[in-house]
Amino acid sequence: MAELGVDADPFVLHLYAALAENERRLIGERTKAALSARKAQGARLGNRSNPCQAAALGREAQVAEADRFAANVLPIIDSIRTSGATSLAAIAEALNNRGIRSARGGQWHVSTIQNLLVRTESIAPARL
User: Fold this and answer.
1) How far apart are CA 102 and CA 43, in angstroms?
2) 21 Cβ contact partners less than 8 Å away, ≥ 6 residues apart
3) CA 24 to the chain's CA centroid
4) Strand, helix or coil for residue 103
5) What is the pLDDT of residue 5?
């Protein structure tokens, strides 16, 4: 709703909120109906057999993706360091100025730079 601007009429905002709430309810109803239909067809829903294994596989995938992202960004950070930016804040500012997004698509901060550098130090060269 931020795109409506500061002069947006409260009544219009109320209408948009009501429409969004109605859509959320409709999505919930459609999801429940689809799941009920699948269950009626005999499909087994969920993963009751190996939740620990599924969680471990999910963590492995997240770690692998984080390692891949760090490996791709590290050369850019090295070039920024070479150009004279040595503090974590200066590196974050340089990445933001270049339009490079963090792993979650946001801005870089001192903590995200620090976490990435710690990750790259702990990654074995074979995993990069």
Assistant:
1) 39
2) none
3) 22
4) coil
5) 66
